[in-house]
Each structure stands twice: as structure tokens, then as C-alpha cells.
């Protein structure tokens, strides 16, 4: 491509549209001579390479359209400057395919310079990005040795479950945040430098999880690192300096784990934690403009070793509700107190050194709970004090208050404590609440049991009023056993209100907790958390959801049983103050009751919540529709009834949740149906849901319509069949496709059809194509309409297994939810079942996965991959695991001919020839190294091909250096001596 050379193409689009020679390999390699190419703007679905002949700076592609380069294929950009001058345009726009950019420069007038979405794969290496952002949305890729400078808004945005590596990058002078991570995305940020952002250096929110290593954030306009809204950051060897407000914010259910991190010279606090948790090990927080560390609003912070020094106010300040543990920390040279604790805080100080503070080493309110052991407090300006009165404390002694400027986003409430709404001056009456219970759909057995308990309580109160003994003690603690979505939480709230109305409990509030609210990762922390939850429930009901998880021992350091033991003692000590309701699956709750000898005697009554009947589920859908201003047509009602009659309603069926999903999907489909109409529908039409709006025949178990994209099905099958070897794998996948087709035909004929179970085991050595086949399998199921999207989320043990109690279930759940509508591919899955020591949580990941596979059986395909013998052990770790995987596909090692075929395919794709003598040398090399290639297979062949290309380049360059003018044949032919 050239502006001046005769016969050359003048634009990229011309070069892309030019016919290829016969027998040419797929894809195009377009060489661009130096120059500026204005009015560039094209869209392509093909595979191609664009290369500046003379390298970076020699070729500029300028555009003013929506995108200068818009692609959906597999593209390589080398040495180009790509610019876009539209206020709403991008330099590069990528959907679905891949872009690899080496030594390129991207400029955009809009806020976005480069964007990838819909599963695209974007890699920038040694690149520069000016003014616009790099955006990953539901995509993967990497930024390496790349500079992002002067972004108008955020410099890097990673969202919608994206997985990205940022390594050795510089992000400079972003208008807003340098890096923003959201929507369950999981980037790794290593060896990066962030400087001068207008707002924050890194923001992590909405379930985003960031691994942050050996990086620097300096001169941020506001807070350097923000972790909020259930975001998570694992940081190591980080340097934060000169933050415009705070060094670190952790808030709204977020979690921060930091090691060897230093925060210097923040304008306000070094770190603020609010309604969140943080663990800092060997960290230093120095020179903060206010408190070094502020712990407020029920936050829990542990500082282990490390140093907090030279703060303008307190080194560590706990505001009301804060919980702090200081273990081996040095707190020194702070201008007020070293450590302060407000009323209502809890503080544990172990083995710490408080020295050279201008005020007291430690100052605590008389209403703070403080535990001190092995404390060194010397050379401070005033003596320590633990009894500061709440009202009369002098200002100079008062614990440091919370920062004046709170984070902009307020944290949601923790475990709920909702009392039933009052009805009239005297509060909610028992009969009114019973009537509300009776109005609930289904639950006949539950209603009968609650009414029986209510009558017993009524009569006991009447006996007391008559001066008679109330009769035998009535067991008020209960187990609510049954599948999810059957109203257990709602019934618990009504029961609490009924007991309050009868005077059995004082207030009737219901405090809802789960394992995460009761179990701590620290020794002694579980008893404290359980006691806190129990205290909040005094005068009402403590509702423990999925209580059986407390009795499952995940590892040697699991503290679930400690929570049960603490709970049993509290139930005895406060038997008349709290009603405990433990909820969960029926079978698992029997194990829960057996976990402590005193538990079964204290919770003597079990109320069974049965699955809703198909008719009751239809009523639930109708009730939701009516509440939202919709109604069901007769054909829609009949279709829903048939759907719920056909689905398997076992112990894990979603019940009310499943009914809600049916209704919500119907509303979405109705909206899509009306969106394309020219005329506005009438109010009657807008409120009516018909059978065509229902999505009840979507999902893995019941999609029996036509294929969504028959052409795509054929295309993916061709790509699968073109892969070398794998005959057994291809046959097995063909069988699965035949099962889907047969089920559709049977259902169309009115016959029963077995549900499609698509979970698979891929067994075999590495390098045999397992990941590639998984991607094709996801594409096939999406094209067939079995999966909603077909994306493949690739994970390994590190993505699923946490470092502390409770983290593994969270990580596994987050990864699973990113896979909804597609395929979850777990590489080396057998490592989950290997016991890695006392703190190994691999089994917890497996147990969580089994439950999620059942709860979302129609939404995700799980493929577990690994060595054949190891995968047998993996399946044996959980009784439900083997039954959920439909079959095992065995990926056999490639024979020598297959490895040669792979090598030749790579050579052809890269414009190299493999003549017969080279082929013979290749075969001999593979035979001589049979064991190596049997273990590595395709991966080892890829290494061998790269080595051959390197040897070829070395050989031909030697010839060129002697003055030989190389021919095309010499440049493309691999010789036997290149096989090394």
C-alpha cells in the first residue's frame, strides 16, 4: 500500500477487497509505505496484518468516522499511528475477534481511543495511547510496556467480566481515574506506574477483583486507591505517595489485602475503611495529613506488623462501630495519640510498640472494648488512658473523630435487622400477620405449623393472665428446611412479628445472617462475630440462612464449628431473649443439627418447606405480573403451567426464583417484540403477556426451537473438523449435537425428551487442543440457541480458591456468574481436590461449584480439564460431581504424523514452506524426542516452530550480510538445519 508507488493500493480498504491469488493462505499481510493516509475508516471481518514498512512514526492512518479501524476478525497492527478526529469516534474498535498491536500509537479526540467488547481479545505491546481510553468490555487481553497519557476521562476501563493483564505500563495525567475496574472483572496489574490522575489512580467496584503487584500510584488528584461496592484488591509491594485526599479508601462491603505496601504523604488519611474489611501486613503508612488509619462505620481492619508514623492527628483512629486488630505494629511520632478508640468501638492491641507520639500512646473511651497484651508504650507526650468519659472528656483527650468528608458512595447496610411495619398505635397484631401468612401462595404445611405454634403461645399467655402456670416450655427455635425460593425468609419475618405481637419477644426484628457474617478468618474472631449478630437479634429473631455451611469443615483452620458452639451457649444464656431460625436444604440441615450435641435439644422443631406445585408457580408468576401492571393471556398461562410441569423440581429447584425469572424474561421479550413496531402499541397490548413473550423454552434443559444461526453452526463444525486428529472428541461432540437435534424433533412431535446435560470432562495431557475445543463447543451451543452468549471463561485453581475462610465461595461464585450464558472452562481442575495443607480450600470450591451447577443448570456449561488419571480423583471428591458431568472426552496424545500436521499448519499460516527434506528432518526430530512431545503435544510443537523460524532468520540474515540478495523462496523455505 502506497501513496506513490505504481500498482500499489491507495487505501487499506482497497487492499482488503483485492482478490487473493489462487491457493493463497487465508488472511492478508498488507505492507504500508511511509506517509499520512487521511480519510481512513473501514470495517472488516477478515484476518489481516497491517505493517508500517519503516516502523513506528512512518505511517499515519487518520479517520473521522465512528472508528478509524473497526474489525471483528484476527488482526495484527505493527508500527502504525492510528488517529481519530471525531468527537464520538475511536481509533480502533474490536468486536469478538482479536487485535495484536506492536509498537503502535493511538490518538482519539473522544474519551475512548481503543475499545474491545463481546469477547474480543486486545493486546497492546510497546504502544502509546494519547487522550482517549483503552476500554475492555466482556473481553480479554493485555497491555504491556504501554504508555497511556493525557486521557480526557478515565485512561483504562475494564468492565463486564473482563480479564486483562497490565504489565510494565505507565498511566499519566488521566482526566479522571487512571484505571477503573468494575462488573466482576479480574485484571492483574504488575510493575505499573500511575501518576497525576485528576481523580483516583485505581478504582475497583461492583465485584471487581484486582491483583496488584509491584506498582506505584503518585500525585493523584483525589484518593489514590478506591475499593468499594464489594470490590476486592490483593496488593503486594505497592507504593502510594502524595495523594490529593486519602491514600486508600475501602468501603461498602469491599475487601483489601495488602502486603509490603507503603502510603506516603496523603493530604488527609493514609487509609479509611468504612463498612468493609482490610488486612494489612508489613505495611507502612507515613506522613498522613489527618489520621494514618481511620476505621469507621462497622469496618474491620487488621494491621499485622508494619508501621504507622508521623500522622498530623492519630496514627490509628477507630470511629463509632469500628473494629481494629493491631498485631506487632509500630505506631510512632504521630502528633495526637498513637491509637484512639471512640465509644462503641472494639480494639485489640497485641505485641505493639507505641513510641514518641506527641500525645498519648493510646487513648480510649470508657465505652470502647479494648484488649491489650504485650504492649510497649514509651516516650509518648502523655500517659495512656482507657477511661475517657463519653460526655466530659477534654477535647485534647478525645479520640479522633471520623473524617469530615465521607466517601461519595454510601455503603449498603450489613446483615438486615428489619422489624415488621407497625399497624396502628399498638403495633402489628398477630391475627393480621397470620392473615398475611395465609395469603401467601402454597405452603400449606408451613402455615399449619406456624398457626399451631401461635395458638400454643396464645394459650400460654392466657394461662399466665389467669394466674395459672403457662404449661410446658414451648420450643421456639426452629429449622426451616427445604429448597430455595420457598419463602423461608418471608415466613421468618412474619413469625418474628407474631411473637412480638403476642409478647413472647420484645421487638420482633429479624436479623438475617449467613456464614460470612458469623465466621472469621482469625482465631477468636468467630466467637466475637457470632456474639455481635446474636446481640443485634435480642428481642427478636436471628435468621441464619444456609446454616449447614457452618458444619462443613473446609480445612484445618475452619471456624464454622466455633460459630455453632458459641451459638449453642448464647441460646442457653439468653433463652428468653432471642428466637433462632436456621434455614437450609433438608438433608444438609440434619447434618447441621448433629454438629453439636446441644444443638438438637435447643432446636427441637423442623418446619418443612416443600416445592411449589406447577399451579402455585403459575399463581406466583401471575402475582408478579399483576404487581408490575401486566397480566397473562390464556395461552401464556397454559405455556407456563406446561413448563413447570415438565421441569425437574427436586431439592435444589429455585421455586419462587424460577417463577420470577420466567416473568422477567417475558417482560424483556415483550419489549423486544414491540421495539420494532412502527406504531405505538395500545395500553392493552403493553400490559398483556402472551405465549410468544415467554422464555420458558430457553435454557439447556428445554431449548427445542430452530438453531439460532445455522450458518454459524456449519462454520464452527468445519473449524472443529479441520483440527488435527481428535477423532474421538469430534465424534463425541457430534453425538451431543445429534442429541440436541433429536430432542427438538421429539418435542415438536409431542414426545418426551431427556434434558440436555452439557457439562463435560476433558481428559488428557496438555497441548492436545482442550481449550480450543472448549471455545468451539461454546460457539456451537450459542449458534444452536442452547447458550445465550457462548463466551468461554477460562479459569484455574488460583481464580477459584481463596486465602481465607469464606473467600473461596465468593471467588468461585463470581467466576461462575461471569460464565452465565456461556462455558466455564476449569483447567487442571484436579488441583482443586489436592490437599495443599491446613489452609487449603480447594474442596470448598468444588462444593460451591456443585451447588451452582444445580442452581443454574440451564445457564452455564462447565468443562473440567486435566490429566486422565487425575480427573478420576477429582470426580470422586463430591458425591454430586460425577452425576453432573454428562461424559468424559478423552484427548489422546498426537502421533508423529499429527504433530507434523500441526507444524505444517503453523508454517502455512505464517507464509513458510516445509519441503519434503525438511519434513523428514522434522519427523526424525519428533521421533527422537518422543517423550517430550508426548507430554507437551501442540504446545511443544509451537515452541519447535518458533525455534525453526528463529533459526531460519539467523541463517538468512547471515546470507544477506554477505551481500546475497535473498529470493522469495529463500525467505519462505524452512530447511532441515532449521529444525532444532
Explain what you see:
- Residues 392-428 and 697-706 have low confidence and may be disordered.
- The chain has a 16-stranded parallel sheet. A 16-stranded parallel sheet has the order 2-5-8-11-14-17-20-23-26-29-32-35-38-41-44-47, with no helix packed on it.
- Helices cover 31% and strands 25% of the residues.
- Helix 7 links the parallel strand 52 (541-544) and strand 53 (579-584).
- The chain is of the alpha/beta class and 980 residues long.
- The longest helix has 24 residues, at 938-961.
Quick description:
With about 1000 residues, the protein is of the alpha/beta class.
Which features does this protein show?
alpha/beta; 16-stranded parallel β-sheet; single chain; 980 residues
Shape: globular
Largest sheet: 16 strands, parallel
Number of helices: 26
Q: How many E-type strands?
A: 61
Q: Give me the oligomer status.
A: single chain
Structural class: alpha/beta
Distance between the termini: 36 Å
Radius of gyration computed on alpha carbons: 32 Å
Beta-sheet strand percentage? 25-35%
Helical fraction equals: 25-40%
Mean pLDDT: 83
Strand order of the biggest β-sheet: 1-4-7-10-13-16-19-22-25-28-31-34-37-40-43-46
Topology:
Blueprint: H1 12-17, E1 28-32, E2 35-37, E3 42-44, E4 48-52, E5 59-63, E6 67-71, E7 74-78, E8 80-84, E9 90-95, E10 98-102, E11 105-108, E12 112-117, E13 121-125, E14 128-130, E15 133-137, E16 140-144, E17 147-149, E18 156-159, E19 163-167, E20 170-172, E21 179-181, E22 188-190, E23 193-195, E24 202-204, E25 209-213, E26 216-218, E27 225-227, E28 232-236, E29 239-241, E30 248-251, E31 255-259, E32 262-264, E33 271-274, E34 277-281, E35 284-286, E36 293-296, E37 300-304, E38 307-309, E39 316-318, E40 323-327, E41 330-332, E42 339-341, E43 346-350, E44 353-355, E45 362-365, E46 369-373, E47 376-378, E48 385-388, E49 417-418, H2 430-438, H3 444-465, E50 478-481, H4 488-501, E51 510-513, H5 515-518, H6 525-536, E52 541-544, H7 560-573, E53 579-584, H8 586-593, H9 597-602, E54 605-608, H10 614-627, E55 631-632, H11 634-646, H12 656-675, H13 683-687, E56 688-689, H14 710-722, H15 727-748, E57 760-763, H16 770-783, E58 792-795, H17 797-800, H18 807-818, E59 823-826, H19 842-855, E60 861-866, H20 868-875, ...
Parallel strand pairs: 1-4, 2-5, 3-6, 4-7, 5-8, 6-9, 7-10, 8-11, 9-12, 10-13, 11-14, 12-15, 13-16, 14-17, 15-18, 16-19, 17-20, 18-21, 19-22, 20-23, 21-24, 22-25, 23-26, 24-27, 25-28, 26-29, 27-30, 28-31, 29-32, 30-33, 31-34, 32-35, 33-36, 34-37, 35-38, 36-39, 37-40, 38-41, 39-42, 40-43, ...
Antiparallel strand pairs: 49-51
Helix pairs in contact: 2-4, 6-7, 10-11, 10-12, 14-16, 18-19, 22-23, 22-25, 24-25
